[in-house]
Each structure stands twice: as structure tokens, then as C-alpha cells.
Amino acid sequence: MSSIIxxxxxxxxxxxxxxxxxxxxxxxxxxxxxxxxxxxxxxxxYYLSTCNRVEFLFTCQCRDEALRxxxxxxxxxxxxxxxxxxxxxxxxxxGLEAVVHLFRVASSLDSMVVGEPQILGQIKSAYREATECxxxxxxxxxxxxxxxxxxxxxxxxxxxxxxxVSISYAAVELARKIFGTLEEKRVLLVGAGEMVELAAxxxxxxxxxxxxxxxxxxxxxxxxxxxxxxxxxSFEHILDTLKNVDIVLSxxxxxxxxxxxxxxxxxxxxxxxRPIFFIDIAVPRDVDPRINQIDNVYLYDIxxxxxxxxxxxxxxxxxxxRAEHIVAEEALKFVTWLHTLDVVPxxxxxxxxxxxxxxxxLRRTFSQLPHLTDRDxxxxxxxxxxxxxxxxxxxxVFLKKKAERESRQTFADFTQQLFNLEDxxxxxxxxxxxxxxxxxxxx
Length: 443
Prior knowledge:
Elements: E1 3-10, H1 16-28, E2 44-49, E3 53-60, H2 63-78, E4 91-94, H3 96-106, H4 118-132, H5 138-157, H6 167-179, E5 186-190, H7 194-205, E6 210-215, H8 218-227, E7 231-234, H9 238-241, E8 247-250, H10 261-268, E9 276-280, E10 297-301, H11 306-309, H12 313-340, H13 344-368, H14 374-402, H15 408-418
Parallel strand pairs: 5-6, 5-8, 6-7, 8-9, 9-10
Antiparallel strand pairs: 1-3, 1-4, 2-3
Helix pairs in contact: 3-5, 3-12, 5-12, 6-7, 13-14
């Protein structure tokens, strides 16, 4: 039976500097999915990278060897982390635990912001990439589609999303706590993605009337500025804008800092040392952490927002408990299906042997009764097909029920011996799956 395993790190197990190091390495080097042909013991592979997590979901037959290969893959991409041993940041989930983990992630129960909707879109995007690279097969295809439906069920049956506090909201709340009021403050938004757009909405709702948008793609900056009645500035002139703003919120996809220590330090003279606050919600980070050492410069990154996000934890707790129940229920259903894969070859072989016997007897009967009309032949074919189906019903149901037990292979072996499925008439162990029996009309 194939094992399902998740190996990864997230905001709970690794600080932002470690997460960004791995995310950046995977972005700059070869996509991990492209390395699947070189992983001898990994059958299917899915890779997810967000600002708060980097995970590898895979299936295998040889657990220890596959874990060793994926561990090597992690180390290869991360290099030699200067912070500490990589193992101290990594978690591993297997079997039912791995399925529950994926469903919790998709349902936003494992997010820094419980209930936030962005994670499901990120999982779907990563799945599309895996399908394009052809690294997912029968098991992960079904597992990920089930994750999508579980997340949808959680959204429809609970109110967990209505109590969510987004990263962008937390960033604006942090700014409000710092200044007390934001009405007269000037804000520079660096980037024009979903996180920045959400932040702009929150700034606007808190009375900010002076916003400037900078983005590498000017057209997108103009669209966002028009939506929120803001100004735009070219990406190359961000530093010149620093002398006139109070808050800089940055969230781009840059692989390296776009605001560096020396550049910010030199602009502080023009500001006459008036305080300026940087809120960096990008991973990898957009702002050089060293600027926090500059007088009257205050930098907050994504990990600093956790305290604000925790404020509505009690509101979300009850809905999260309901969501956890849905996740546990659906995970058990999936694992039950997974176990049935062990008996599917036996079921297919049983059906094929019965079908071969049925077709052989029909041919013999039709050859001895040449006067039968087409309608007679069709009636006999329907009759024999119905008899075979009813005779096989109980053995197949029996096997499927036993598939939930640890001894399922024993029952499968017994069935193969009982019906002599290895005598050449069956196809036990073939690549066919249940439902693929080729039924031909007899004329």
C-alpha cells in the first residue's frame, strides 16, 4: 500500500528568515517538481510554497528511503542554514495524520490567520503546477480534489471565514496602534498584489486619504491607484518618496530586498529624522532587517503581526472546533478509500474472470442456437450479465469491507486462491482499476 507523507515547515516551526531562505532557493533553483524523475522512491509529488509555509506532499512504497530522498532535496535547496540544524524546523506527517494536515491547511485551520481565504487559492495554483509537471497521479489527484471539497464544506457549514483577520488587516491595525489615528498619515504601498489591495482597503476605511502605489508593472499600479484614489510612483523612484511618507507597507515577489539599509539611512537626513514605519509582509522579505538599527526607523515583519492576529482567537475558536470535526470525518473517509486500493486488483481480476466465463458460454450457446434473433441474443446477454453481477455482489462487498482492516491483504489472497485468479483467466496485479472491465457485445 502506498504511504502518504507531508514534510515541511511553517510559521509555527520556523522563523521568517528560514522560511524565506527555502522559498527563495526553490524559486531561484530548479523547481522541486522537476526533480521527481531523480527520486527513485517517491511515486507522486506535490509542492506548496507560501509566505507562511513550504511543504512537500508525496506518496511512496518505501517510507524510509523516500524520506531520505526528500530530506536531501530540502537540504539541497536550503543549503547550509546558518541559523540551526534544518531538522529542528521541519515536521513530518504520515498516513491519516498527513491527510488531516492537508485538509486543515486547505480549510485555513493551520494558517497564521485562521479562516483566511487565500490559502485555498494557493493550494489550487500549486496543484495546477503539479498537474502540468505530471507529478501527481491517482492518489494525490483524489486527495487534493478532496481537500478542495473539504475546504468548501468548512466554508459553507461554519462561519469561520467571517471571523478571519487577514495579514493585511493585521498590518493596518499595527499601524493604527502605533499612530493612534491614521487620518493624516501618508502611506506608500509597494507592490500591487492581493495583499496590498486588501491593505489599501483597510487603510481607506481608517481614514487614510494620502496613498501612493509603486509597482514594477506600472499598469497594475495605475489600476490599484484608480480604485483607491491614490497616486502612483515609478518603482525606480521609491526611495525619493520616502521623505514624504509616514508608513511604508511592502509585499512584492522580489527575491531580494528592494529597500536596503544604506539607501534608507541616507534618506533619513532629508526627513530630518521624522519617524517612519516599515511593515514588510513579503516572504522573502522586501526590507533589509538592518534598517531597524537606524534612528527613528521602525520595521515590523510578518512574524510581528501574530499578536494582533490572536485578538479574535476566541471568536474563531467555536467555529474552528466545528471545522475540525468536518476535517476529521472527511479524512477518515479518504483513508478508507485509500485502503480499498489494496483489494481493487483482486476485484478487477474477479470481475474479469467472471466476464470471460460469461462471454465464453454465450459464444458456445449462440453457436448451437443459430436461429436466435438479435433481440433473443440481446435478452440472453442482459440475463447473463445480471446473473454474474448479482453473484459477484457479495464477494465484492465483503472485500471492500475487509479493506478497512490491517488484514485486508490476507482476505485478498484468500479470494485469489478461492476463485483461482492466478490461472491466467484473471488479471490480478494488472494496471486496470475497478470499473474498467471491457464488456463486448456478442453477435
